[in-house]
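Recap quiz, item 2
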Amino acid sequence: MTLRDQISEIIETQPVALFMKGTPSFAACGNSQRALTALRTAGAPVTAVDILPDPRFRQELSALSGWPTIPQVFVKGELVGGADIVEELAATGELERKLAEALGEGFGDAREERVIPLAAA
Amino acid sequence: MASVATEPLQQLLRVAFPDATELAVVDRTGGGDHFQVTVASPRFEGLSLVDQHRLVYDALAAPLSDGTIHELRIKTKGTA
């Protein structure tokens, strides 16, 4: 599968996809940490993808999303935003409403955090 | 406060948002590559935050792609 297809599949199939620098256990960038913290606070199930291992990961992601910076958060295939937006939505409670609307009221039950690696073709 | 680092970004934003009621660029670290941008404009009315931020990214596309901006924080506001 091409890199582009791998990224598309993650965006389309994961309830909440967080493309970040580093991993949830070790975020390598303050903004990735901010987005992760906001998602955790809202109780989101997080599927994290580390874009650092290969520069092409970020290039392909940004080409696909049209969003130039990292992190990027997708809920059910829709770009919700970067760290600033996710933080702002979390602060107003809108993030939780959005998650409940997209994933159902029980979205927080799993409290799942996983990491999916990308493979450079 | 305007500086060598923030002035070119201010200029790009002023051109992109001539009707902005608030427009600020702060060099967050003093290193000239981590910026906080705040823009209030009637253009943001009715747009999602994603689309609001996209307008700011579009305005700053050149410094974003050439590496002038290493990190960008954005705060957008409508004027209603």
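The beta strands of chain A are 16-20, 22-23, 26-27, 46-50, 72-75, 78-81, 113-115.
The mean pLDDT of chain A is 95.
End of item.
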